[in-house]
Amino acid sequence: ASKAAEKESDTSNLRSPICCILGHVDTGKTKLLDKIRQTNVQGGEAGGITQQIGATYFPVEAIKKKTEVMQVYEKRIFEVPGLLIIDTPGHESFTNLRSRGSSLCNIAILVIDIMHGLEQQTIESLRLLRDRKAPFIVALNKIDRLYDWQTIPNNSFRDSFSKQTRSVQQEFEDRLTKIKVALAEQGLNSELYFQNRNMAKYVSIVPTSAVTGEGVPDLLWLLLELTQKRMSKQLMYLSEISATILEVKVVEGFGTTIDVILSNGILREGDRIVLCGLNGPIATNIRALLTPPPSRELRIKSEYIHHKEVKAALGVKIAANDLEKAVAGSRLLVVGPDDDEEELKDTVMDDLTGLLDSVDSSGHGVTVQASTLGSLEALLDFLKDMKIPVMSIGLGPVYKRDVMKATTMLEKDKEYAVMLCFDVKIDKEAEQYADEQGIKIFNADVIYHLFDAFSAYQAKLLEQRRKDFLEYAIFPCVLKTLQIINKRQPMIIGVDVIEGTVRIGTPICAVRLDPETKQRNIMVLGKVTSLEINHKAVDSVKKGQTSAGVAMRLDNPSAAQPVWGRHVDESDTLYSLISRKSIDTLKDPAFRDTVTREDWLLLRKLKPVFDIK
Ligand code: GDP
């Protein structure tokens, strides 16, 4: 037999797919993981489910047992040796399980609470999954909370569902439909998994209960079905090493260790490894490969099993020297006999330098700092979607020198003189320095919280600008005098609004050309302090708003008020006092949105009146 054929028949050479769980807080991710891990076979652990570092391994035997109730619906041939499910639910592990911008997660479960529908982190998860092109299924969890749901523990969804009353079924259908519509609004077609005829185009929904275990067999069954379909044969065999650091942890007796998901290949004790560090690449030798002892009950904290070698896919703890500055989310490369270590160091740092592409080349934007490569990448993707420019990026704790980078924005653009920090420690001195300099630091461990805080801050700044520049935000208007009511202070004139809108606060003027010198003479009558239509006070009057006249009161604190009848009279057209500065103020983001197209057209028309270029 050929080598290839030999390889094909040798199932020990197959690797297992990796699965992550994502979703909004409290949708039941942890509970669902617990339920999947739990055995429904009486008397102990089912077929060698093993607890690893940061992950649980399910051999195919265990999955077969757990999906027995599915046999009545579909026969299944299991091709993969098992399934590795990442234990830490949420974005953290998903974002760090990455390599060159794509995901090492072969399949993800997005958990949605059937009672709550899509929530903010659901939408954030959807964006992550889409950005990383990770295949996923939706677990529509907490079906047991449908009113009057009758439970059959660990049953298949279809069987349990068929035994519910019509009203329970109806409530389920209603909620399902709503959620499908909400998903469609996010650009995602979805279908109940057993009605899904086009898995490539429609995402499959599996109704589950993490409490009763109903739908859990369906979920496992579908996970295998999909990964086997989606993962090419090639991918299912052990090949080149692919590994990612999920966490960096200090462990008593081992110093700083890294928790690694080995998604492909074999790692051996003594291997020379290269990884990305906070202050540059790290090269070291694997001192120990560790996994927890098999039985959860007997586990003592500091006790680990040592391995000479480990095979993908699995979660393993690596002890080695010089890991203090290792960065979660970094790839881990093994230096082979023909490899150039320096080259590998460059390769591994590419993960960080590659992210510099997201940085604005003109040095304009916010400063971003994150705890891991994965979260930094996710945050940058997010900011790109939100069209928020980034000036500088960083990893790890925030120090004074990081804040100093942000201060360059203080003069250029105050609204970007901020640091958006994702789950990092902020040094005391740095915090104090930021305070003194007026740099805002936002720190959160949920992207949208960070974004919300930043948006609120931007809105506040804008509001402040609006207040500060209000007197320069002069909207254009053209008025015709109908009647002078009071010539002295305060001047009161009955006017008709010919163009634009007159508002309280608008300075009003007349413009005359000196017939001899051809000099433009702008006479400011005063600022509008009240407007009345038929004795009713209003804040503003738009062209065409009333056929009655408007009584406009003007106050002018300056003594140089033009004299009615001498400097100005009924024949003068009155204007709001516009200038280069007032036009530029209206263009500012603080006001731009309140200026209409008609306003711009009128401004253009009025420029020659005031000789504005
Ligand atoms: P996570 O934040 O997504 O990990 O959510 P948890 O697993 O911690 O669950 C949040 C809460 O919802 C807990 O009180 C769980 O007991 C409860 N819960 C989770 N799944 C279900 C379910 O299927 N049915 C019901 N009734 N409660 C659930």
Helix and strand arrangement:
Elements lengths: L2 H7 L8 E6 L5 H9 L12 E2 L3 E5 H7 L15 E5 L4 H6 L1 E2 L2 E2 L3 E7 L6 H12 L4 E6 L15 H6 L3 H20 L4 E3 L10 E5 L8 H15 L11 E10 L3 E10 L1 E3 L3 E6 L2 E6 L2 E4 L13 E3 L1 E3 L2 E6 L12 E3 L6 H13 L12 E5 L2 H13 L4 E6 L4 H8 L1 H4 L5 E5 L5 H10 L2 E5 L2 H23 L7 E10 L4 E13 L3 E7 L6 E14 L2 E3 L1 E3 L7 E6 L17 E4 L3 H8 L1 H4 L4 H10 L7
Parallel strand pairs: 1-4, 1-7, 7-8, 8-10, 9-10, 21-22, 21-23, 23-24
Antiparallel strand pairs: 2-3, 3-4, 5-6, 11-12, 12-19, 13-18, 14-15, 14-20, 16-17, 16-19, 25-26, 25-32, 26-30, 26-31, 27-28, 27-32, 28-29, 28-31
Helix pairs in contact: 11-13
The protein binds guanosine-5'-diphosphate.
The site of guanosine-5'-diphosphate (GDP) has 16 residues, from helix 2.
Description of the structure:
- By secondary structure, the protein is of the alpha+beta class.
- Helix content is 29%, strand content 29%.
- An 8-stranded mixed sheet has the order 2-3-4-1-7-8-10-9, sandwiched between helices. A 6-stranded antiparallel barrel has the order 25-26-31-28-27-32. Strands 11-12-19-16-17 form a 5-stranded antiparallel sheet.
- Strand 2 and strand 3 (55-59) form a beta hairpin.
- The relative contact order is 0.08.
- The model is unreliable at 1-9 and 40-44 (pLDDT under 50).
- Bound molecules: guanosine-5'-diphosphate.
- Residues 23, 25-31, 89, 141-142, 144-145, 209-211 line the site of guanosine-5'-diphosphate.
